[in-house]
Write a structure and sequence with these properties.
Length: 406
């Protein structure tokens, strides 16, 4: 798909995954040159194709989903009916061809499809299989279904988010899925490194629930060491004062925090009230916290008449931690993201030009790329099975007749 020499150009991946957690792993591998084949069924396509907006022009359709497109660029798409023996035969051939298998189904589903790790290892002794599911492959909750919002709640995030007197707040989107998928890529690369050195394959058991715990490490340590249970605190921080979001002109906002008395003194100068740093109300972090309402009003009076970018620039120039609160529209114009080519326009077969998201890391000596927009449902059956796997036209036609492609 790309003329650029890429780091994973020799790696072949078959992806029995759907939604975010599995396909995001495949997307990142594909970004750096891996040949990734996304397996679906026409009877039950990837849920992101059919269940989650936005859809092109507000009309649903398997090839009209922006959500599917976001997580599946640079891949090939095939459709197999895994309820038919012929479909399973071709799935087995894909496993034999691949270096890596990705799946994010509930424990036991792949085995019931005759595609579990024991079968995969018999077909391909060096195969690396990564299983990414809610709870991992073992334990009393292993078979519990669910999505990222519930996992974020279970992992403690939501209990720490929101106002002290209010309810826990659900985080935006399946946050924990993307923590897990990024860890999953690291697991796959580690297993590939070992395979190249020893020839051994591996089964990576990735628990999304457990992946999220690193983000509450401080709270876990505080409880383990001192028995302190962290509580919701709105925008307050245990150390920084002030630490809040402040309204600017035209419904814009900035996020601002001061982590030392010296930084607060610099903030006071920007506010045009340098004496605040010597005022008993605000001289220390403790006094600033005790008088946070009054301090927030002073900062808001300064910020409310300014553009958010202007306010942030003034603060940053004074070495005060501050950034604008970007809207979704702002992200497509952010000069930092544009400079690093995060958005790469590619032509989609049904939706036209799309701004595809490039992974948040790159390799300057062997750069990655978004090599194509997400594939249409089943678009690459002939290419994958005849060119990649080497079926003859007669063999391909026979598999079609036997119901392999639903």
């Amino acid at each position: 798909m790309s003329a650029i020499s890429q780091a994973l150009s020799e790696v072949k991946v078959v992806e029995f995954g759907a939604y975010a957690a599995g396909p995001h792993i495949g997307k990142m591998l594909a970004t750096f040159g891996a040949t990734v084949v996304h397996v679906e069924s026409r009877q039950r396509p990837d849920g992101f194709r059919t269940e989650y907006p936005p859809f092109k022009d507000g009309r649903t359709g398997a090839d009209r989903s922006g959500c599917f497109a976001y997580f599946n660029d640079s891949k090939y798409a095939v459709c197999l009916d895994l309820k038919e023996p012929a479909g399973v035969e071709l799935a087995h051939r894909l496993v034999s061809w691949s270096d890596v298998m990705i799946e994010n189904m509930r424990p036991g589903v792949m085995s019931r499809l005759n595609l579990g790790y024991e079968v995969a290892r018999e077909l391909n002794s060096g195969v690396i299989m990564i299983s990414s599911c809610n709870m991992g492959q073992t334990g009393p909750r292993a078979h519990t279904p669910g999505f990222g919002s519930q996992l974020s709640a279970l992992a403690g995030f939501c209990g720490l988010t929101g106002d002290p007197d209010g309810p826990p707040m659900l985080l935006y989107g399946p946050y924990i899925d993307f923590i897990a998928s990024t860890i999953g890529v690291a697991g796959v690369l580690a297993a590939l490194d070992r395979k190249y050195r020893t020839g051994q394959g591996a089964w990576v058991d990735l628990a999304q629930y457990e992946s999220g715990l690193m983000f509450v490490a401080g709270a876990l340590l505080d409880f383990h060491s001192h028995g302190v249970v962290a509580q919701r605190a709105g925008n307050d921080d245990p150390d920084a004062a002030p630490h809040n979001a402040y309204a600017c002109r035209d419904d814009q906002w900035i996020a601002l925090s001061c982590w030392s008395d010296e930084e607060f003194a610099r903030l006071a100068v920007v506010l045009g009230q340098s004496g605040l740093a010597q005022c008993a109300q605000f001289a220390t972090a403790e006094s600033r916290k005790a008088n946070s309402g009054a301090l927030d009003r002073l900062i808001s009076q300064w910020s409310s008449n300014r553009d958010a970018s202007e306010a942030a620039a003034l603060l940053q120039n004074a070495r005060v931690h501050a950034c604008p609160v970007n809207s979704i529209a702002d992200l497509f114009q952010d000069p930092q993201l544009l400079h690093r080519h995060v958005w790469r326009r590619r032509r989609h077969g049904a939706m036209g030009d799309l701004a595809c998201y490039f992974s948040a890391f790159d390799l300057p000596d062997m750069p990655g790329d978004v090599t194509g927009a997400a594939p249409l449902l089943g678009a690459d059956n002939e290419l994958v099975f005849q060119e990649f796997l080497g079926l003859t036209a007669v063999e391909y036609a026979d598999y079609r007749k036997r119901g392999a492609f639903d």
